[in-house]
Amino acid sequence: MGKKVRKESETPCKETFEPLPVEGKNPATVVLLLSSPEEDILVKACEAIHTFAEKGDENKVSLLGLGALEPLCQLISHDNKLVRRSALMALGIMTANSESDNIGNQCRLAFSVIWWRTMQPNVVVHEFATLCLASLSVDFVCKVQIFDSKGLPTLIQLLCSPDPDVKKNSLETIFNMVQDYQSRQAVHELGGIPQLLELLNSEFPVIQHLALRTLQNVTTDKDTRNTFREEQGFEKLMDILSNADFSDLHIEALQVVANCLNDSESFQLIHQGGGLTRLTEFIITPNITEIQSCAVKCIARVAQSAENRKLLHEQNVEKVLVELLSVSDVSVKTASCQAVSKMSFHLACKDCFRDLGGIPEIVQLLNNEMTDNLRTFLFILVQQLYGNCAGTVANSAATLGNMAGQGVIRCSILLHGAMQALVEPLKSTNVQVLVNTTQCLAMLACDTEARAELQTAGGLQPLVNLLRSYHKEVLHNACLAINVCASDEPTAVEMCRFGAVELLHEINQSVKRRSSVSKLAMTSLLNSNLSVKYSLTGHLSSTDIIRDGFYDAGKVSVCQRILTLEELSEQPVNQQRPIIFVNTSRKITTYFPAYFSDTDSDFGLITPLLDRKKKQKDETQPESPTEKQWKMMDDVSLPLLVKEVKESILPLSEEREQYAALARLVSEAMGGAVEMEKLHEFPWVLHLSELKFQLQSNVVPIGLIRRGIYRHRALLFKCLVDCIGLSCTLVRGEYNRAWNEVLLFTGNPSSNGRSSLPCRYIVDLLHQPGSLLKANTPAAVQYQTI
Ligand SMILES: *[C@@H]1O[C@H](CO)[C@@H](O)[C@H](O)[C@H]1NC(C)=O
Ligand SMILES: *[C@@H]1O[C@H](CO)[C@@H](O)[C@H](O)[C@H]1NC(C)=O
Ligand SMILES: *[C@@H]1O[C@H](CO)[C@@H](O)[C@H](O)[C@H]1NC(C)=O
Ligand SMILES: *[C@@H]1O[C@H](CO)[C@@H](O)[C@H](O)[C@H]1NC(C)=O
Ligand SMILES: *[C@@H]1O[C@H](CO)[C@@H](O)[C@H](O)[C@H]1NC(C)=O
Ligand SMILES: *[C@@H]1O[C@H](CO)[C@@H](O)[C@H](O)[C@H]1NC(C)=O
Which InterPro entries does UniProt cross-reference here (predicted)? Predict the structure, then answer.
């Protein structure tokens, strides 16, 4: 049946074609159709382009590539109204909301054509012409073009258009234009203010918003503000502010108010109309922070004038502001800080802030040199570190860390108590917080005071604890921070006390966890704790200077906690090797003044030189009740040895001779030369046992050792060398054997100027004391190995 009908309809019209269906499958074809002489095809082509362009920028680009704009621009002046309209609609779509510059540029080419068509009576034309303008007017060049072609008066007229879309598009164009000074003034001069105020009554929120934002821009101009006042602008704004249904408009309305408050005339007006009370109400309204911060900004504005500050003081605004300093929202806090600093120019206000208390930071801020805003900002950031929101804390820490790069700013950050504030975040379980906090810490802790502050605030323990983290970045940053904090001995010592070395040692055992940074942290820490360094690495370089308190606890191979000298001395006497320590000081203790006469070199005196426990047992010793602290045992012999070395070794002219003489002296002190074959007969083991028993302690001062072998002699040698400013290493080999290496210049300058090359020597302290064995020779190797 269908077929039949079709055949029937085909037969009567033989002269013309039946209308062809335009199927916009191929955009190129459709663009070609824009040049068709047939009006209904033109309309359909325009509509097809409209639909196609509506689908997105990509389609617009392809249409531009096909040259669709040019015929469209011609078509908007076509005789046929329907064609004009559809062409304009297509153009409107094509020019609206384009994100690509390319599209924007081409649209601008079409722009002038479009503009001159806006005066046509057809509302649809207006709608789309203004739509084009709205999107084009974002561009500076286009704005100038609109301005120069006297577009602004037309646009202001169009604000009264009955069509809300035309209103909205025109307003949007005006808003874009008033971003520039020229147009801002023109709007006022062209009588645009009443129209803008009228639009505040629009039933369309989008229009109300745009009108407010435009007003916000134009009221930066003083003349405009005068007009605004004359046109009862304030009353209209207050109506909005008093209407809870318009709460979405409150922020923008307040911003306009803030602008107007710059003039004291305006402020008087607002104040008289009860506006100040209204503002204070907005400040107290606790739930919408953005409105709050905006209202506080208004107060800050008001507070710029001395006269106004008095008025604000009378309203007791200070109290509210101080309360706002402790709210969590940053923008409110920042605004409040600014208001406080402005208000503080008024003496009574400043006193009031002081009396209200809790803001010493603010007062401190007021006294130093940085700009108000920066100071306020830093203050806020530091305060935020105390917050509960992980994201905020992380961001604050990151920002502070970044800013700390500049010295002055770093000081200011520290002044605000940043170190203390970082302690809690260091205990966080949030990875981002930890990453950012440790990074910030590494940046801030670059001077001794800052590090001391961190220590006082109890930040070192949580920092060290982060070494347990298996999160790569957290661990990395913690190591960085520890590396920085290890620069001072007190902080380094405390970190060791919290087990940093052991943890880093553990990390170093894991191929996955160790990194250059963890090694760096380890090295820095160990450099502050040579005892541990020697225990763990078995190597002290010539720049590692042994000092009092150094102890050789032997090799620590597995990851175990390295006990302190105090802990070691409190252990009951055992069968293991003694711990040997260095103490060159000769303090006359209050307990035993009589024993330390100048001639005193009697080792029999060691018995009274025991540690605290022993002394306490001794009834005859007047133990003061406060004297509970552990004290390192004195070494009656070592100071004498040091004295002798200074007198006899230092004067020698040759370095080689100095080392040799010192070697002989060390050997003498520890039982003299022992032939290698007779070593097993040398009674050093017995001697040390006796010493331990006599001292009732596993720790033994090195000066008291009268029979010592490799490791005792090497340690004494290192210790004496360091005392007189020579240099040598201390190296531990297998089976606790140890030796010293010195660098000497080869003594033969005749051979081709080679004399400047230093050679390494191992110092023989045992078999032929004073021999310097060239490193890697069989003699040296024999000395180093069993
Ligand atoms: C105009 O006001 C808007 C807010 O509505 C603001 O973002 C913009 O910076 C202002 N422009 C100028 C030039 O003041
Ligand atoms: C308000 O006045 C201050 C100086 O008194 C000025 O810096 C600021 O730009 C003014 N703001 C407006 C919106 O006029
Ligand atoms: C703010 O509080 C008022 C009552 O105090 C309430 O009516 C309003 O819904 C609250 N607004 C928000 C955003 O919580
Ligand atoms: C800090 O933390 C935030 C997440 O809160 C993250 O986006 C940012 O990248 C971090 N900054 C740095 C420097 O790591
Ligand atoms: C050295 O490290 C050990 C082990 O961590 C620690 O107990 C001791 O207090 C540290 N001593 C010094 C002087 O740093
Ligand atoms: C760390 O581990 C490497 C490889 O096991 C080792 O060579 C190095 O001596 C270790 N460093 C320390 C300080 O223990």
Answer: ARM-like, ARM-type_fold, Armadillo, Armadillo-Ser/Thr_Kinase, EDR1/CTR1/ARMC3-like_pept-like
